[in-house]
């Protein structure tokens, strides 16, 4: 396994020069675009890592997986899917265009920014402070890492520049999708995106979802099985935004990317994978990361299709 991972890393390295660190969040631009790492955790408890797998990065859109899961656990599926759909968009992750469609009246899915912001509004808590505390606590629980926290510099950087996300939120408020105070809500969203993890943390989370929500160490059901099924189905169809179809063909496993360069992948009943490679393609997905996953998927026959 170590050897295959090393080969996947070498393969991925050939593609990092084709991408760039996310430029629209100034703090993310400082991250070296040549970083690349991967970590795997199997349901038998074996774990392997190569490259920059111990480097911390902000999980950005990968937080949408955790927040959707917690929103479903807090409210049940009926209430969540009343506010946000479960269909792929074919549009960029920060697109506003389909929000105006009268036939929809809600964002298309929880993996794009609009849908994620609407999902965050469903997290239980008396105010934004309590909501983000619950989200961070949940991230610690599912990763088994009590030290997970928020990168303040990245949070502040996005809070200063995140006007597109503010517009999505205000637009949804004008349509009645969001009922809460937009400024308070948007800061919860920026903070969840700025949570920091390593490939190891992501692999551990991936393994939990692939084990139907049962903790590998304690055997405890942390997430109901019905919810891990819903969330991984949405990851499969929408997890890489408007590249989800191509990713399903080339890799074929439920996954979620983020503009910090991370990818969380979960192979049902087999293993979890955490990837880090901040050089992004034009759709906001890790260039080297996708290549490593496609190499591994071929070598280990991981595709679910
Ligand atoms: N915080 C980022 C944003 O809202 C997350 C986007 C992403 O990772 N694709 O723009």
From TrEMBL:
GO biological process entries: glutamate biosynthetic process; L-glutamine catabolic process
Keywords linked to the UniProt accession: Acetylation, Hydrolase
E.C. numbers: 3.5.1.2
Cytoplasm found in the keyword field: no
A molecular-function term among this protein's GO annotations: glutaminase activity
InterPro entries: Beta-lactam/transpept-like, Glutaminase
Keyword flag GTP-binding: no
Binding site for substrate: 61, 113, 158, 165, 189, 241, 259
Reaction(s) catalysed by this chain's protein: L-glutamine + H2O = L-glutamate + NH4(+)
Family indicated by similarity: Belongs to the glutaminase family.
Protein name: Glutaminase
Organism: Zhenhengia yiwuensis
């Amino acid at each position: 396994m170590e050897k295959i991972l090393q080969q996947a890393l070498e393969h991925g390295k050939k593609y990092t020069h084709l991408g760039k660190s996310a430029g629209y969040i100034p703090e993310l631009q400082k991250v070296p675009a040549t970083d690349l790492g991967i970590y795997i955790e199997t349901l038998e408890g074996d774990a392997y890592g190569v490259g920059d797998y111990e480097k911390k990065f902000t999980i950005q859109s990968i937080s949408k997986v955790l927040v959707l899961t917690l929103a479903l656990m807090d409210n049940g599926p009926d209430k969540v899917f009343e506010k946000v759909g479960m269909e792929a968009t074919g549009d960029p992750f920060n697109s506003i265009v389909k929000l105006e469609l009268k036939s929809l009246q809600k964002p298309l899915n929880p993996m794009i920014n609009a849908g994620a912001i609407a999902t965050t509004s469903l997290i239980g808590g008396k105010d934004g402070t309590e909501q983000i505390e619950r989200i961070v606590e949940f991230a610690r629980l599912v990763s088994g890492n009590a030290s997970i926290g928020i990168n303040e510099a990245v949070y502040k950087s996005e809070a200063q520049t995140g006007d597109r996300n503010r517009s999505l939120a205000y637009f949804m408020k004008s349509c009645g999708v969001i009922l809460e105070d937009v400024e308070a809500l948007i800061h919860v969203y920026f903070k969840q995106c700025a949570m920091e993890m390593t490939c190891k943390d992501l692999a551990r989370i991936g393994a939990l979802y692939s084990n139907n929500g049962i903790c590998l160490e304690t055997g405890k059901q942390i997430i109901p099985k019905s919810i891990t099924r819903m969330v991984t189905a949405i990851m499969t169809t929408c997890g890489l935004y408007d590249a989800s179809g191509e990713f399903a063909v080339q890799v074929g496993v439920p996954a979620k990317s983020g503009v910090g360069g991370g990818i969380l992948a979960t192979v049902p009943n087999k293993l979890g994978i955490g990837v880090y490679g901040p050089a992004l393609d034009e759709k906001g997905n890790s260039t080297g990361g996708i290549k490593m996953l496609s190499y591994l998927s071929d070598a280990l026959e991981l595709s679910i299709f």
